Amino acid sequence: MFNRVIKRVANKEEEVNYWPSYSDLMAGILIVFMLLFIYIFAGYQTDKQRREIEHATAQQELKKKDQELERTKKELGETRQRVIELSSTKEKIIDLLREEFEKENLKVEIDDDTGAIKLKDSILFDTGKSIIKEEGKKFLQKFIPVYVRILLGNSEVQQQLAEIIVEGHTDDVGSYLYNLDLSQDRAFNVVKYLLGEEFDYEYKEELKKYITANGRSFSKLIYDEDQNVDRDKSRRVEFQFRLKEEEILMEIKKRLEEVE
Question: Which CA distances in Å does 124 have to 133, 136, 139, 182, 215?
Answer without folding.
Answer: 6, 4, 8, 13, 15
